[in-house]
Write a structure and sequence with these properties.
The chain is of the alpha/beta class and 306 residues long. Helices cover 37% and strands 16% of the residues. It has eleven helices and ten strands. The strands form two sheets. Strands 4-1-5-10-9-6-7-8 form an eight-stranded parallel sheet, with helices on both faces. Strands 2-3 form a two-stranded antiparallel ribbon. The structure holds manganese (II) ion. It comes from Hassallia byssoidea VB512170.
Length: 306
């Protein structure tokens, strides 16, 4: 049996601007799965929390001079692999995620998945890998390498997700990394993985130029673990680490990736909301909105709507 889904989901930005599925360019896919988090729990509540906070995001994007949410068709999918309604095995989660994303890609939707724990990304990337014949680069923003072969007895632990992707033989570019174990450091050297560490980002102004040119393929899948961002901006994550990207560096980087490369899909993972603070989920919602705006600009969706 496939993992249970919950049908009642509030649409991203609210029902006033929600598009229907057929006319949408963007599909927000909530994946409320949490099983292997080890420090602060709560990322199964991440998707709902981002959707709720998105209702407070200003439609008008002052950087782009556009009301992105009114011009781009954004559809919010029902929640999948929801562990709040009972245990789901990693295998079930991976299966339902890959099947759902494959269907959305087949319908030519730009998918933004909201997690949920980072292990989900392996299934999302697998769906793209099966769809595209040419390779694409997985660009990861994260505090952690996520390159362990296994962790706490599971290869599907959230600390192993990039290892699964390296094992798929896809090129990777890792950004904001500042917490890795010896096994990961050795793997980075052995496989000569491309890593832009948070220290470099803080101290070397040319990091962004180098990171953009380190992406060797036209197509890019973007996976954002919210702990890659400075935890003073987003404290509501399961495994916070000091340092990380600031908001404007992140925005400039995302805009340039969308302009210079063909971003085929993305996910925003690991939000674990903090009771009595809305800053993490609101920042995550705004991040999603900015990605939609940058993609719309790069893909010509604004022109299509005017
Ligand atoms: Mn992480």
């Amino acid at each position: 049996m496939l993992a249970q889904t919950s049908t009642s989901v509030m649409p991203f930005l609210g029902s006033d601007v929600a598009a229907n599925y057929d006319t949408s360019q963007v599909v927000i896919l909530p994946i409320a799965y949490e099983a292997t988090t080890t420090y602060r729990r709560g990322c199964e509540n991440g998707p709902d929390s981002i959707l709720e906070a998105s209702h407070q995001v200003e439609y008008y994007d002052e950087e782009l001079d556009r009301e992105t949410g009114c011009e781009v068709g954004i559809y919010t999918h029902e929640t999948i692999a929801d562990t709040r309604s009972g245990d789901i095995s990693a295998e079930e989660m991976l299966k339902v995620t890959e099947e759902t994303v494959s269907k959305l890609i087949g319908d030519r939707k730009f998918v933004i998945a909201l997690g949920g724990e980072h292990s989900i990304t392996a299934a999302i990337v697998e769906a793209y890998r099966k769809y595209y014949t040419e390779p694409f680069t997985v660009v990861q923003i994260d505090a952690h390498g996520d390159l362990r072969h296994s962790y706490e007895g599971s290869i599907h632990n959230h600390a192993c997700v990039m290892r699964r992707i390296v094992d798929m033989d896809l090129p990777t570019v890792q950004i904001g990394i500042r917490a890795i174990c010896k096994e990961e450091a050795d793997l980075i050297k052995e496989k000569q993985l491309t890593v832009f560490r948070a220290r470099e980002i803080a101290n070397q102004p040319d990091w962004m130029e180098r990171a953009i040119s380190a992406i060797q393929t036209d197509k890019v899948f973007l996976t954002i673990d919210l702990d890659g961002i400075d935890p003073t901006l987003i404290p509501g994550v399961g495994t916070p680490e000091p340092g990380g990207l600031n908001w404007y560096a992140l925005m400039t980087f995302l805009r340039r990736v969308c302009e210079k490369h063909n971003v085929i899909g993305c996910d925003v993972m690991e939000l674990a909301p903090i009771v009595d603070s809305v800053v993490s989920q609101f920042t995550a919602a705004k991040l999603v909105y900015k990605i939609i705006g940058y993609q719309a600009l790069a893909k010509g969706w604004f022109e299509a709507g005017t």
